[in-house]
Predict the 3D structure of the following.
Amino acid sequence: MQIHISPNDGVPIYQQIVNQIKYLVASGRLAAGEELPAIRVLAERLIVNPNTVARAYRELETAGIVEKRRTAGTYVSDQGSPLARRERLKILTERIDLLLAEARHMDIAIEDVAKLVQQRHSTMQTIRNEE
Amino acid sequence: MQEPFPSSAPPIVDIRRVTRQFGNKTALDDLSLSVPRGGVFGLIGGNGAGKTTLIKHILGMLKAQSGTVRVFGLDPVQNPVGTLGRIGYLSEDRDLPNWMRVGELMRYTQAFFPNWDDAYSEELRQAFDLDGQARIKNLSRGQRARAGLLIALAHRPELLVLDEPSSGLDPVVRRDILGAIIRTIADEGRTVLFSSHLLDEVERVADRVAIIHQGRILLTAPMDEIKDTHRRITLRFGQSLDNPPSLVGTLSFAGQGAEWTYICSGESSQLRRAAEAIGATVVGDDAMTLDEIFVSRISN
């Protein structure tokens, strides 16, 4: 499980862990039933306070992304996959919001943004076909 | 680690109204601070803020001129045996006996600590890649720090005190030190107090933070609370302003024309409501790093 903490962007560290695990689950790199590292192990690996990891795991548990099993241990829950699409859309929505804000600052109309997205899609399709 | 934080146990360090003067310079100014048991407590402050002086009081190396210092409920000056034997300490200048070999340093230090764990000290020596035959005076700066850390940890102290442990060290050694801090508190009930001016490190490992400035504690709170209650809010006003209206909890502001950025203490929703009440549009609302929070508090 690959997680990268950057203390310089202002996002609380537990939130960075939550976001990245959600992303790993949504993108299928963490499968349903897979075990997450123990709190202490992940804390030592990321060099963050164990309470921070514990808080992130609690949030993920509340969100239904992971579950604790009787034999101590945290696993990606089976409901991981139905949630995944919603999570994927949520991640995209955040990116789109940033894009729209930027477009507004640059005074570019939504129609032009949509056109540009379509255009980029075609370009990438062409590149992919050529490969 | 599973204990709710802060724990309900009495504080491990309790400092009440301590003042310390060196000549006519006031190093600690009627300072009170309580460090709860369990977790990592980060003491942050600029050069000369009083961090080292405060730590020396905790270790009984300085006697309070007024006020009281209690560690494990005891006065460290009156009762050094009951306190120092339970504290692991690494100083900023890492003064170790230069003439000794690493193995000799380990045996020598062992004599002072009844709880010294031989197997653990050997494990640390190997993990830190320290040669038992090497002379302290020939160690590199990083290896010297590791040797200092080894003797601070090997008696499994209830309280680990680190004064600027990372200063002047490369990232690999810094990682060892931070890793040791995390392993120390992952063992039930143990406490780490460390001072640092590398605030990204403090942000990663501390549960609780105190900002010390000019011998006083400006702010002490759990890290999460500090992060949640400091925001950088950018507002746009209907017209150009020479001086923007004040917003509750403002620590500082900067800007020009119709757009002004406020550094505020308060929760996001509450600050947004306050901004709307003065007729402004919120165009930016960001969390701040500990570094930014520290600077805004100090310059206030």
The mean pLDDT of chain A is 86. Residues 84-130 of chain A form one domain. The helical segments of chain A are 13-26, 39-46, 50-62, 80-105, 110-130.
